[in-house]
Amino acid sequence: MEIERKFLLRHLPERLDHYECLALEQAYLCTDPVVRVRRENQDFYLTYKGRGMMVRQEYNLPLNQEAYRHLLAKADGSVITKKRYRIPVPPYMAELDLFEGIFSGLAIVEVEFPTEREALAFLPPEWMGKEVTQDPRYHNSFLSRLGSREAACTALSLPCR
Q1: pTM, 2 dp
Q2: Shortest CA distance to 57 belongs to which of 118, 116, 1?
Q3: Fewer CB in 10 Å around end: N or C, the chain?
Q4: Contact yes or no for 138/132 (Cβ under 8 A)
């Protein structure tokens, strides 16, 4: 079970370079239900996510690099690349995703919780901005279907440069 809230970024937290940073690449084999392949540094996963916004089923299965590459070639839509910073927000861990490529300029912060009660009681730090947990446009599976920078800018009201 995944229980998480999502926020846009108000501003970068101080000393961002002091936090663990992962390089992520992911693509979607299906978006309903969500079936995703992901490279996280040198680890590879196949993920299934059920329906839902704040609470949903999630299963991760390890892959080897060969299986990942094979499935990546079968993915629909855009491949998403981003840098993920893991930032402690005691007693939780925030994951700040700074998107690259056609989604450059987009930053989403996710915080996972052990219970719905804790999720609902969470008060985000001041560097986190507007909550977008209930907005499906901020699901990576939705983003992967946009296909161009212009479509992303329009769908998310991002400034296009």
Answers
A1: 0.93
A2: 1
A3: C
A4: yes
User: DSSP states of the chain as a string?
Assistant: -EEEEEEEESSPPTTGGGSEEEEEEEEEEEETTEEEEEEETTEEEEEEE-S-SSEE-EEEEEE-HHHHHHHHTT-EEEEEEEEEEEEEETTEEEEEEEE-GGGTT-EEEEEE-SSHHHHHH----TTEEEE-TT-GGGSHHHHTTT-SHHHHHHHHTPPP-
- d(Cα 124, Cα 103) in Å, to the nearest integer? 24
Express each pLDDT in 89-140 by its tens digit. Answer: 999 999 999 999 988 889 999 999 999 999 999 999 999 999 999 999 999 9
Give the catalytic positions in this structure: 28
CA 148 – CA 51 distance, rounded (Å): 25
φ, ψ at 3 (rounded to 5°): -125, 110
